[in-house]
Amino acid sequence: MRLAHLLRPRTVVSAHCDLPCGVYDPAQARIEAESIKAVCEKYQANDDVEFRTRALIIKEQRAELVKHHLWVLWTDYFKPPHFEKYPELHTLFNEATKLAGAGGAKGSADPAVADQLLAKIEQISKIFWETKQS
After folding, report:
1. What is residue 13's predicted lDDT score, i.e. its pLDDT?
2. I need a labelling partner for 11 at 20 to 30 A (CA). Which of 25, 29, 44, 66 fits?
3. Nearest in space to 57 (alpha carbons), one of 42, 70, 73, 69
């Protein structure tokens, strides 16, 4: 009984995220989305079949990374109080991940689609940084 008492934590702490706060940053998704846009522009400007094939493969890999980084923010960083204060967050993440997916950047080589994705990520980023201030 005495051993259990000695091993019991003296302080109980809680955090709003699963890892230290410096780990999360929407910049990861933005950088990958900027890569998608650059690849789309290069794809449009090049007629070489092999180059274009490689570009599409890279674009799709980057789109998966965008989705991954957004999902980590959506599911690990943002908590119920954030969603209460910013009720549009679920919709923004849903729209952004769809823009990164088959109906968006993965299914299109149009730089305008990448611009739409970047705009959604920017909206998420703005909210993210507001939450870091509180």
Report:
1. 52
2. 25
3. 42
